[in-house]
């Protein structure tokens, strides 16, 4: 198989907002600017960091870390609760900027999306120029910064967008993909989590070049169906189209605790934040669902799920949160320690909840 990526004529941009929640807070509140800011809760609330400003990251503060740990790292940091309604409004404005250039937009979350600009609306032609124009519009109109990755497929564009944060723009053309992927550390591969990266390193697979030495069958034997994906992407092959109208079968979110725990208060705090994230994603897709599923991963990586269905479809964060707590209690965890929690909503029907919220207004009980 050739090392050259297939479908090299496509022009794909991945836009990723820089420290999105924290940047919106610093924009809206001048007293936060230039200071370490933690979005997620108070340091004594057992909350989890949703986003940290770049000033806070210099102290080692990262997303999913407990707020108490963040406080230990930087006692002078400012701690605030998220304002999800404000972030959703900004996300909508960002999406409007994208739509000036293309209708092929695939949102991944409130703060990132793929754009296919192979045929752009304004006839600009250059994907690099389009990415620059989008970044300039976001900065001038919204007073925020974004980083962009430009390439011939989604995978490489996404990796590229993370190369020069914040406010970066990285182009990886067809002739550069082979060398780029071979030098890339395995932990930088999108889709390779901490556990998989650790397994790879234990196998002396540290870079894309090392990964490339394994055959497709060897990768499948070691990593299951993901092995086929790794085999292709390390060669720069990713033919997935940008899907603006892909069918959504479920919407969910999950987060890893900073430390394995059996403390219910800590788990409840994390579930509350996860339910807020799911609610925002439901709003983005204009969806309601009837089945709530709780995902629990233990310290030994054992995984269980618990589900319950409602007679009517729901989308409210508060309802999902309360149901997740009930499912957690019914799981009878005892003294078992938990490392990850997740909430998923499925069995959808579409309902317009963005243009006319009415009684469907999302609940943010902070």
Q: Brief description of this entry?
A:
It is built from 13 helices and 12 strands. The chain is of the alpha+beta class and 366 residues long.
CATH architecture of the largest domain: 2-Layer Sandwich
CATH superfamily of the largest domain: Reverse transcriptase/Diguanylate cyclase domain
The whole-angstrom Rg is 21 Å
Oligomer: single chain
Distance between the termini: 54 Å
Low-confidence stretches: 1-8, 349-366
H and E order: EHEEHHEHEEHEHEHHHHHEHEEHE
Structural class: alpha+beta
Q: Within the largest sheet, what's the order of strands?
A: 5-6-1-7-8
As for the CATH topology of the largest domain, it is Alpha-Beta Plaits
Q: Tally the helices: what do you get?
A: 13
Residue-averaged pLDDT, rounded? 86
Written account of the structure:
With 366 residues, the protein is of the alpha+beta class. It has helices at 20-28, 54-57, 67-73, 84-99, 127-142, 154-161, 174-183, 194-202, 208-212, 216-223, 226-233, 264-285, 317-330; strands at residues 12-17, 37-39, 51-52, 78-80, 105-109, 112-116, 146-151, 169-171, 250-261, 287-298, 303-314, 338-350. The chain folds into three domains: 7-171, Reverse transcriptase/Diguanylate cyclase domain (Alpha-Beta Plaits, 2-Layer Sandwich), CATH 3.30.70; 177-233, 5' to 3' exonuclease, C-terminal subdomain (DNA polymerase, domain 1, Orthogonal Bundle); 250-360, DNA polymerase, Y-family, little finger domain (Dna Ligase, domain 1). It has 13 helices and twelve strands. Strands 5-6-1-7-8 form a five-stranded mixed β-sheet. A four-stranded antiparallel β-sheet has the order 9-12-10-11, with helices on one face. Strands 3-2-4 form a three-stranded mixed β-sheet. A hairpin with a 4-residue loop joins strand 10 and strand 11 (303-314). The protein starts with 11 loop residues before the first strand and ends in a 16-residue tail after the last strand.
């Amino acid at each position: 198989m050739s090392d050259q990526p297939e479908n090299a004529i496509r022009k794909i941009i991945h836009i990723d907002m820089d420290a999105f929640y924290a940047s919106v807070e610093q924009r809206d509140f001048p007293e936060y600017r230039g200071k370490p800011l933690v979005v997620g809760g108070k340091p004594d609330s057992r909350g989890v960091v949703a986003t940290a400003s770049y000033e806070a990251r210099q102290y080692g503060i990262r997303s999913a870390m407990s707020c108490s740990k963040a406080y230990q790292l930087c006692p002078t940091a400012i701690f605030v609760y998220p304002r999800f309604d404000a972030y959703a409004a900004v996300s909508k404005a960002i999406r409007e900027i994208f739509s000036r250039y293309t209708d092929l937009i695939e949102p991944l979350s409130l703060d990132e999306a793929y754009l296919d600009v192979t045929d752009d609306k304004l006839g600009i032609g250059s994907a690099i120029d389009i990415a620059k124009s989008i970044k300039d519009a976001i900065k001038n109109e919204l007073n925020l910064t974004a980083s962009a990755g430009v390439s011939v497929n989604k995978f490489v564009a996404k990796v590229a967008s993370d190369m020069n944060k914040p406010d970066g723009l990285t182009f990886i053309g067809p002739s550069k993909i082979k060398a780029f992927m071979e030098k890339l550390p395995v932990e930088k591969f999108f889709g390779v989590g901490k556990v998989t990266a650790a397994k790879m390193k234990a196998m002396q697979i540290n870079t894309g070049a090392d990964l490339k030495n394994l055959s497709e069958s060897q990768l499948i034997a070691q990593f299951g169906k993901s092995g086929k994906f790794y085999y292709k992407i390390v060669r720069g092959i990713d033919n997935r189209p940008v899907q603006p109208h892909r069918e959504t079968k479920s919407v969910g979110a999950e987060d890893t605790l900073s430390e394995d725990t059996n403390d219910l208060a800590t788990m409840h705090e994390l579930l509350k934040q996860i339910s807020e994230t799911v609610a925002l994603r439901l709003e983005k897709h204009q969806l309601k669902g009837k089945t709530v599923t709780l995902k629990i991963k233990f310290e030994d990586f054992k995984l269980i799920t618990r589900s319950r269905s409602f007679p009517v479809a729901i989308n409210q964060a508060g309802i999902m949160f309360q149901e997740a707590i009930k499912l957690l209690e019914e799981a009878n965890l005892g003294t078992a320690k938990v490392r990850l929690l997740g909430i998923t909503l499925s069995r959808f029907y579409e309902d317009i909840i963005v243009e006319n919220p009415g009684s469907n207004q999302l609940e943010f009980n902070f």
